[in-house]
Amino acid sequence: MNGDKLKNLREKSELYQKDISKDLHISSSTIGMYEQGRREPDNNTLKKLANYFDVSTDYLLDNEKPLSKTEEELVEKEILKKVLIKYGYMNYNEDLSDNELKKLMEFAKANKKFIKEDNN
Fold first, then answer.
1. What value does the mean pLDDT of the chain take?
2. What's the pLDDT at 115?
3. What is the rounded distance in angstroms from the CA atom of residue 88 to the CA atom of residue 40?
4. CA-to-CA distance for 8 and 72, rounded, in angstroms?
5. Are 45 and 74 in contact (CB under 8 A)?
6. Taking the chain (120 residues) in consecutive chunks of 10 residues, what is each chunk's mean pLDDT?
7. Closest Cα partner for 38 from 7, 74, 63, 66?
């Protein structure tokens, strides 16, 4: 498994290893070892991780072609929804239109630039 991809998915989702550990009943140290490439998950755990991050097992195993721009946007939208739900800005069963999600993504990107500029 590509540990860097797992770590990147976790960080994009604004999660800590302990969050995944709690949700999937895997120790935090094991998650860390997966990310560092010091340990490989069994097939069942690999499937759990793929389902958790809504990616394919092929993606985690580096057997997948790069995402198209459209697919990448869909992944970003799903991650944004998860973050909004996690922090209570959106209910799990609530849905936002593609246009609303796109505006939120643009807003987030614009604010990121603003915050970075403000720190300099």
1. 86
2. 65
3. 34
4. 14
5. no
6. 94 92 95 96 96 91 79 80 83 81 80 66
7. 7
Residue 42: domain span: 3-60
Per the structure block, which two tokens stand in for 27?
């120790």
d(CA 45, CA 6): 13
Please state, in angstroms and rounded to a whole number, the distance separating the CA atoms of residues 30 and 41.
9
pLDDT at 120: 54
> Is 107:80 a contact under the CB 8 Å cutoff?
no
The pTM score is 0.56
Same domain, 44 and 89: no
Q: Are the CB atoms for 87 and 19 separated by under 8 Å?
A: no
Q: Say whether both 81 and 115 belong to one domain.
A: yes
